[in-house]
Write a structure and sequence with these properties.
Layout lengths: L1 H22 L6 H14 L2 H13 L4 E5 L2 E2 L8 H9 L12 E4 L30 E2 L7 H14 L6 H14 L8 E2 L2 E5 L5 E12 L7 E11 L3 H14 L3 H8 L4 H12 L5
Parallel strand pairs: 1-3, 4-7, 5-8, 6-8
Antiparallel strand pairs: 1-2, 7-8
Length: 278
């Protein structure tokens, strides 16, 4: 059964990636992703595949980790006997409340603090998802993985996330499925399934550019690293769509790359996203 759960997690990741590629209007990988999804679905038992598809039509995530004896999808404390069976991994166990399929993970990386208080009214633009302290106007990195490490370490140093090593490994693994770099020198690497908090991102600039897997080996100059809790999966696509719209014009991207301080970068991004990110 463990191999089936692994296959379901892979299938869910491929579906996420397909949605992302459509949102990014990156048609290069769509056909390959659709073929891989179809092939993986055929290899699953029909009843399990049907259950998975039904859940995915209802929720953003159909397969979720159980962490600390709790379903990370709905927050329900899983009964002890079921929690044990999830950990053993010999049966397919669904959450009694939300019916999502559960798998065992020892500990999820956590978001340690929010951008805003839970009861605070959301701000327009990027202020609800980031902070001036998470801006990197001059990335020192020379490679994709170094850029990811630099941005994740900043988030950890500022107290927003824990376990930077785990986040980095997960981000690199995600990039190996399909690169998140697109045209116009933009990239949107991310990690899903972080425990607690809300969606949050750091932004980094590399005026000289670096290889991030963009189409036709074009250089990436603007990187948004995004941490996505399970509960915020739907907001992620809205965020990247808004960021893309804000930076659609070459003039906007050029102005951003001219920013030399965190404050200048933050002010410009805030101005550009007021209308595109509600």
């Amino acid at each position: 059964m463990k191999h089936i759960i692994t296959a379901l997690i892979q299938l869910q990741d491929l579906n996420f990636t397909l949605q992302e590629q459509k949102a990014l209007t990156a048609e290069t990988h769509l056909e390959t992703l659709e073929k891989n999804i179809a092939a993986l679905s055929r290899d699953l038992p029909p009843d399990i595949c049907k259950t998975f598809t039904s859940l995915l039509n209802h929720y953003a995530t159909a397969v979720v980790p159980m962490s600390g004896g709790t379903c990370s999808g709905c927050g329900m404390s899983v009964p002890t006997i079921l929690a044990y069976e999830v950990q053993v991994g010999e049966k397919l166990i669904q959450c009694p409340r939300c019916t999502r399929i559960l798998f065992y993970r020892e500990a999820l990386p956590r978001q340690l603090k929010r951008i805003r208080a839970i009861n605070e009214k959301p701000s327009p633009g990027i202020a609800r998802f980031s902070s001036s302290r998470l801006m990197l106007p001059q990335l020192e990195a020379k490679t994709r993985d170094e850029a990811l490490e630099e941005m994740i370490n900043l988030m950890a140093a500022e107290g927003f996330v824990e376990k930077p090593e785990t986040l980095l490994a997960t981000a690199i693994s995600r990039e190996s499925i399909v690169p998140t770099a697109i045209e116009h020198g933009l990239a949107f690497p991310h990690v899903r399934g972080v425990e607690g908090g809300g969606l949050i991102f750091a932004a980094g600039l590399k005026k000289q550019g670096l290889q991030f897997g963009a189409p036709k080996n074009r250089l990436t100059k603007v990187v948004f690293f995004i941490v996505i809790p399970l509960a915020a999966s739907a907001f992620y696509l809205q965020l990247i769509t808004g960021l893309m719209e804000s930076l659609r014009e070459a003039d906007s991207r050029a102005k951003l790359l001219e920013c030399t301080t965190q404050d200048k970068m933050w002010k410009l991004l805030s101005q550009l996203t007021k209308k595109t990110i509600a």
